Amino acid sequence: MTIHKGGCHCGKVRFEVTAPADIEVTRCNCSICRMTGYLHLIAAAGDFRLVSGKDDIETYTFNTGAAQHYFCRHCGIKSFYVPRSHPDGFSINANCLDTDTIVSRTVTEFDGARWEENIHQLSPLSD
Questions:
Q1: Cβ contacts of 64 within 8 Å, gap of 6 or more
Q2: How far apart are CA 42 and CA 105, in angstroms?
Q3: Domain annotation covers residue 126
Q4: CA-to-CA distance for 54 and 31, rounded, in angstroms?
Q5: Range of 49's domain?
Q6: What is the CATH number of the domain that holds 31?
Q7: Is the dihedral angle over the CA atoms 7, 114, 116, 126 positive or is it negative?
Q8: CA nearest neighbour of 66 among 81, 47, 49
Q9: 53 domain-assigned
């Protein structure tokens, strides 16, 4: 396991996540993920640490309100959030990780446009 560091575009929000050096991410085609180019690295809550920027984060919710989309109020980047699919963990945007600790990145497609029909395809968190 590796400690990856990352954050938003302006650098006010910074975080760390413990995950393999060879990361496996999911590209979802739901409206918000498609529009933002989000690549999901799912992590247990205990593997995620907000390092700085707590006061610089705003929250956006929509539809069921279950997902808590956090974004930097300065630059608008959503580098992580609490997903509806894994409410006991975090989804980190792999595009917001510093690249020096990533050995490889495997991308799996997920049909989130039909979320209710396909949610069973996502792996549960193992903590």
A1: 84
A2: 13
A3: no
A4: 26
A5: 2-121
A6: 2.170.150.70
A7: negative
A8: 81
A9: yes
